[in-house]
Amino acid sequence: MTKPWIEVDDLRVNLENIPALLDRYNLLPDFLRRLLESKYTHTIIPSKEEQINYFNGFLKSKNISGKDSLNQWLLDSGLDDKRLDTMLYERLQVEKFKKDKFEDKVESNFLKAKESLDRVMYSILRLENPDKAQELFTQIEEMESSFSDLAAEYSIGSEKNFNGIIGPVELGRLDPVLSERLKISKKGQLWPPFEFRNNWVILRLEKHLPCKLDDDMRLRIRNTLYEEWISKEVLTLIDQIRFSNQNRLEMKESVINKITE
């Protein structure tokens, strides 16, 4: 009989059961991700300066200042100094791997996605009645009333709490019905009422904010490319494990059937 990997009272788990259990409890994707990251980064050795800068960046991101603050964070997180050092070292290895593997793809992906990454600020006024929408549109167009005042008074959306102003928000995060209009608008362009999600909408572009390929954007694109890549790697392994487990189960059932025939 195989010795259990873990045994607590009447609970026994054998090594061969672990992949199926990880899959059952939805722990397999994270486990395989960490495993793959170790595989691809184990030869990457960050310099001491890189480690110090990364550690300081981590402290800043967690608003940790001073030894007492760090000790409290470690206590709350269930970690100690050694485990934190290891965790941050491994994270830094992954960050360096991302840069090595994907940096030369950042610019081309930025250019492809730039249109959806550009941000806009816009005013919107939503109404249920098309005749009322046309009436308010005319008041705005002829400058009888301000967009903000009418939005605050009449709009049925949450934008009424902000005088009708939305943004800045990326065009790619907006409904295509809105983003397509805003994309071709000039600053201050007012759109006549149109039907949108069972309501009638008046729309105006307030400001267009083109995105830039700065350090933050480079990091964001690298992270996106990495997530797409590692997710495919993980899914490939999961399929292999599930296929293997299914074959093992079918073989077991086949043996049982033969015994009971």
Short synopsis of the structure:
This protein is an alpha+beta fold.
What does this structure look like?
The structure is a single chain. This protein has 261 residues and is an alpha+beta fold. The chain folds into 2 domains: 6-113 and 215-260, no CATH class; 119-209, Chitinase A, domain 3. Helices cover 60% and strands 15% of the residues. It is built from 9 helices and 6 strands, in the order ββαααααβααβαββα. The protein has helices spanning 18-24, 28-41, 48-61, 67-77, 81-117, 130-141, 147-154, 176-183, 215-260, and strands at residues 6-8, 11-13, 119-127, 165-170, 190-196, 199-209. A hairpin with a 2-residue loop joins strand 1 (6-8) and strand 2. The longest helix has 46 residues, at 215-260. The chain is elongated and about 80 Å long. The model is unreliable at 255-261 (pLDDT under 50).
Helix tally equals: 9
> What oligomeric assembly is this protein in?
single chain
Structural class label: alpha+beta
Report the radius of gyration as a whole number of Å: 28 Å
H/E element sequence: EEHHHHHEHHEHEEH
Number of domains: 2
| Share in helix | 55-70%
N-C termini distance: 25 Å
The tally of beta strands, per DSSP, is: 6
Shape: elongated
Q: What spatial order of strands do you see in the largest sheet?
A: 4-3-6-5
Mean pLDDT: 91
Uncertain regions spanning at least 5 consecutive residues:
255-261
Strand content: 5-15%
Tell me the major beta sheet.
4 strands, antiparallel
